[in-house]
Every structure is written in C-alpha cells, then in structure tokens.
Amino acid sequence: MDLRIKSYQEYKDNYAQSIENPEEFWSVIAKKFTWKKQWKTTLEWNFNEPNIKWFQEGELNITENLLDRHLETKGEQVAFYWEANDPSEVGKSITYNELYKEVCKFSNALRQSGVKKGDRICIYMPMVLESVVAILACARVGAIHSIIFAGFSSNALADRINDAQAKLVITSDGLNRGTKQVDLKSMVDVAVNSCSCIEKIIVLNCINSNPPMQEGRDVWYNDIIKGQSTTCQPEIMNSEDMLFILYTSGSTGKPKGVVHTCGGYMVYTAYSFQNVFQYEEGDVFWCTADIGWITGHSYIVYGPLLAGATSVIFEGVPTYPDAGRFWQVCEKYNVNQFYTAPTAIRSLMAFGLDVVNKYDLSALKVIGSVGEPINEEAWNWYFENIGKKNCPVVDTWWQTETGGIMLSGLGKLSPMKPTHAGYPLPGIQMVLLDGDGTEIIENQQEGYLCIKFPWPSMLRTTYGDHDRCKNVYFSNYDGYYFTGDGAKRDENGMYRIIGRVDDVINVSGHRFGTAEIEDAINTNKFALESAVVGYPHDIKGQGIYAYVVVDGTNSAEQSQIISSLTESVSEGIGKIAKPDKIQLVTGLPKTRSGKIMRRILRKIAEGEKSNFGDTSTLLDPTLVEDIVSNSL
Ligand code: PRX
Questions:
Q1: What does each C-alpha distance from 503 to 454, 545, 582 come to in angstroms?
Q2: What is the pTM of this model?
Q3: CA 468–ligand 1 middle distance (angstroms)
C-alpha cells in the first residue's frame, strides 16, 4: 500500500484537495486499508461538545492491517531488528510471519485469561519485542491498552491503573538501562496494592531476577503462551471503538487519559509515516523513542507496521557503552531513516565527532527530530555530522493528542529551514490565533497554534471525563482545537514552534504539568507550599526549578531537606521528573488575592535579577528581593 506523495507539487495539490474536500481526500486513502465492512459516514463532527467521528459504522481490526495483510507478500520480511542494551548480546529479529504467530498466541492467552473487548490493560514494559506483541495482542482482542512508560513510579502507575480501571497489567521482572537494571515487578506489586481493579499480572522474564509471584494473580508470560494456537480470530471493531488510552500531563490536575480510536488513528499514522519519512520498500527505519510515549506508539509500532516496514527497536540508552551507540546501531542495521529527540542530539554533541566518524552512516536518507524545539546549533550539528549534509532533517511537530505528525517536511521533497517544523501535512488546517481568538492571516506573525478542522487521528475524549477534554482543548477558542503551543510563521508561511504557553514543562521531550510536580513536592513532610517553573536548560531543553516554602521550625539540614523533596518527586511521579534546582524560600510572591506570580518566578529561574514588570499588586515585594538574592 503506497501512500507516498512523490513531489513537492504533489504535496501542494494534495494539500489543496484535502482542504477543499477533506472527506473525499481521507476516504480515498482509507479505502486502501482492509475493512471488514465499509464505513457509511466519512466524518461527523463539531468542536463544541466535542464530537468527532471518522469512518462511522466501518468495521476493522487494526492488527489485520498491520499483520495479516502483509503475510502473503512480506511474511519472511523482518518487521523488527531488536538491539539489546548490551552490545555484546546477540540481537534478535522477527519476521512478519513470526510476529503474527506471537501476537496470535498472546491474544489467545489474553482471551483465555478472561480479557474481552473494551477491557483496559496496562502495559508497563521495557523496550523488547514482547512489548510490541503485547500491544498488538490487546488490539487484536479489542482490549484497550494503556501503556505506562517504565520510568514512572509506583504511585504514578497506580493512578493510571485506577483511572482506567484496568483489570490486567503486563510487565517484566525488570529492565536493562545502560549499566543499571531496574526492577519493574516490585514497582507493579506496590502499585496494585492500591488498585482493586487488577485481577492478573503477566510477567515477562527479561533479567532473570526471579521476583516473588503471587499465586492466583501473577503468571509468567512464557507459561501462558505455551501451547497456544498460532492463529487467532481478530475481534471486529467499529472504527470509533477505542484503540488505546495514553496518559499525558496538562497544566492542571492529574495526567489525563487521551483516547485514540481504531479507524482514524490507523489511517493517519500509516499516511504520515510513509510521507514524512518517505519510507520506501526495503528501507530500515529507526525511531529511538520509548513505546511508553506517543512517538513510540505511532512510529515504532503502528505507523511502520501498517506500512509493512522494517524497523529497529533498541533496548538501551544513547550513551552506553559510549556516546557512539546510536551511530554504531545505524551502521549495524544500515538504517535509512533515523528519528530521535533534540535532547539526545544535544547530549551527544558534547562528546565530539570521534565517536560519530568511526561509523558508516552512508545509508541514512532522512533524519528526524521530535518532542521539543530543536535549537539552531543542534540542527546544524545533526544535519552536518549525522546527515553529512545529504539528508533532510524533518523537524516533526505533534502531540499525544494529535496521534500523528502535524507539521513537518516530507523527506527531501519539501523546503527546510533550521528550527522550523515546516508546513502542515495534507488534511491539517493549522492556524495562528491572536489573544482574542481571531485568525492571523498574515505571515511573519506570532500567535496561538490551533487547528480548525478534524483530522483522522485526533483525540476523541479524555478517558472518563469528556468535559475535561472540552475544557482543555476546545474551550479556549470557540471552534478550534487549541494545542497549548505558541508559534510563528515566517515570510513563506513556514511554522516555527516557540513552546508551550501553558503551565506545561517539556523536559527532554517529556511533558510535565507544574501542578503535578508541586503536588508531589507538597506531600513531603518539610514542604508547606511550592511553585514549580521551567527554565532553559542546555541539554534537556527545559529544566525544572522548584521554589519550596519549608516549615521554619524544623531542624533538618538544608541538603537533607532538598534530597527528601527530590525523593518525594521520584516517588510521586518518577525519577524523570526530579527538579534540577530546588530553592528553599520563606514565602512565594503572591498577589493580594493570593495568586502566585509565576511570571516573576520564571524570570528569576531564567537568571534575571531585576525588571520584573509591574509588581505593584504584590502582597510582599521584599520576598522577591530575598528570592533573587538566594537564587540558584
Ligand atoms: O510543545 C510541543 C512539543 O511537545 C508537545 C507535545 O508533547 P507530547 O504530547 O509528549 O508529544 C511529544 C512527541 C510528539 C507539544 O505541544 N513538541 C513536540 N514536537 C515538537 C515540539 N516542539 C517543537 N518542535 C517539535 N518538533
């Protein structure tokens, strides 16, 4: 199934058609997939409720499209090369035929365990092939997967399990990460103590750590797939049935479960994958994200498999055993398209070119970036030293909520410009709004990035709380989906992302709400109150700066308090959200009405010592001087 646009002119023509008649545009593409029953209505929508339905009454199973459909022509083709954390460990590969059989076996095991269409299953797994099998088995039997990044803590895991009321967790005894091993099963054990919905835990043996297994609840992955049939009837899904929930942070409250549905997500991930990366038959694609994030869902699992691609899946980290690991893996598998995050590029730049130049990267055709704005220095380094000035850099802007890439170059077809994500993909009606919600028509302007028409892979709701979906994404500007990002358009209409305009911090491409980190800090016995802001960080893009008011009567050392506060964030969310800087303060700058003036705290975190703008509404201006003089 070739969905590829082959020239820039074709892109422009397709874009024009997709705006003129979106339903016709998407229905031509959707017809190329395998449907059990053709849909009746291509699109029904309004952004007020919101209500978005694509390909209604169409019936399908996404796994038939990414496995069964390929078997005749690509059964013996490798679907994934798996590269272990330890370079001396022999890698594995799995063909489409083999993947199909493994998915069927595990699907049968899930059904035998009582899993039915619509049940929620939580996946808390390392970067191993069985994780892909688990994801696809859920989709095959119609269970809704909720993957939780294996760096989240037990508390974060429990919150997500409870929110989705999952009945089963799929995990492993542990995982390998550089020189470390992380115990996952004990994290799950702690989490499920507060999750009465969980009936079963399926455990994959990854590190031979022999964890305690609770009789009647815990089963080994290898035991339950034993003797299972290698075929499995896929569940018939309606196009708008839920495919998965993925939790992501926003500016308020606990992370919300973004819901994606079967038909639209399938069509858009396959379409965007083939076009952005200009993937051609026989190419090897590598996306370095973790399957726990949306990038892993859409561009390790669904997009590439729908396209019948061959991909690499990597268990380890970019700097183990040394900072040449990415490039060694690119050489080993002759990677043609490489997709990573700016934070990884920036951290690898610091190690110099010796670890790059010893590897042959000549197979690379397209190199991609995702997750946060890529600064000019990193863009140039990537383009010159990895792409050797021959490979276009596709700077792909998108979100958990958008399901697939929205703004990007299309391989070498489109013009590119450092730090600019580029133009919208066909079907994506991107706009900039001013503060009043009026569309900015002119170029060389800056505004709030919004989308004014549905696209197939957009979120449908936030799990269990549709009002939240409406309030967060559809209420700021009537009739528009609001991304939470600010952007500029250059003289040619190319988009450049400025960053979040809400209280979301993007740390190494991972999203955290300031409120979520504050909540974790506030559980600490020393903390009375806290305020968290982001600040520019050379490697991570943004760092986390926490101002914490502590109880002045305690006699603990400052260093002891700070490590205890850090531990509270590790426990509440995970080590990935640990503040980079914690400043203990006697109070927070507040207005007379009690609102924290974050604007001032952000400036102090950025290193400003004065020029805080209008501070006349501050309750106690001397506090600011105090915070500035002790700033970190
Ligand atoms: O602020 C934007 C930033 O990441 C946010 C989405 O985060 P998440 O849902 O975790 O998904 C990340 C991977 C798709 C956006 O609101 N972002 C993502 N890609 C880019 C980006 N910022 C600038 N340039 C990008 N290419």
A1: 25, 13, 18
A2: 0.97
A3: 20
